[in-house]
Amino acid sequence: MIIQHRFYKCTALIALLIFMAFIPAKAALISDFTGPYSPANWTTTTGSNGYIAFNDFSSVTLTSSDQGISGNQDQINVDLTIMAAASGFVSFYWSYKTLDIDKDPIWDPFGYLHNDVFFLLTDDQGDLIQTGQTRFFVNAGDIFGFRQKTKDDQFGAGVTTISQFSVQVPEPHISVLLSLGLACFLLTYSRRLKRS
Fold first, then answer.
1. Which of 27, 51, 78, 145 sits between 20 and 30 A of 13, alpha carbons compared?
2. Pairing verdict, β 76-83 and 110-114
3. DSSP letters spanning 120-188
4. Helices 2-21 and 174-195: crossing angle, nearest 10°?
């Protein structure tokens, strides 16, 4: 009778695990520049006199180079990049302004990087101040980040602040945790059967 009762308990646990396997895993949200995305984990590339400044963990500001050298037509990039810790959606708010005396954002554009491909976010013919919200998907191991360019390296820099940064990453599925519990139970159960 005791063995039959234990058999029913094991059967119920296995049925529960099978049921849990069909429930989708929730996604955890990493907010701001924390955890695997904390400031120390990012790679910075500041060409010429451009710079990057983290504002605690809540935002980061990229400023393009602006040496003021006449005739310099080389594109110079200020890049902030990182390897994706897990697959998920990257989301952020950006606020851009150009300090260019020509009042033309075409010379200092901003965008994001995904596996060395640049995606322009600012409007080259747009206002001096621009804002937006961006969301894109990354796979674990992808390199992504932000780029503040300068095309002329003079007459004023482009400045972009990234805030409300978040990355959705899948949490371990509950069935994995339940499987560990079941394995412990079965191990204990089999030892008790051997003793009796």
1. 27
2. unpaired
3. E-S-TTS-SEEEEEEEEEE-TT-EEEEEEEESSS-S--EEEEEEEEEEEEEPPPHHHHHHHHHHHHHHH
4. 170
Q: How far is Cα 136 from Cα 76, in angstroms, rounded to an integer? A: 25
Rounded to two decimals, the pTM is 0.74
Q: What domain count does the chain have?
A: 2
Are 79 and 9 contained in the same domain? no
pLDDT for residue 64 is more than 80: yes
At 174, is the secondary structure helix, strand, or coil? helix
42 and 120 assigned to the same domain: yes
181 and 99 both lie in a single domain:
no
Q: Which two tokens stand for residue 102?
A: 């020509």
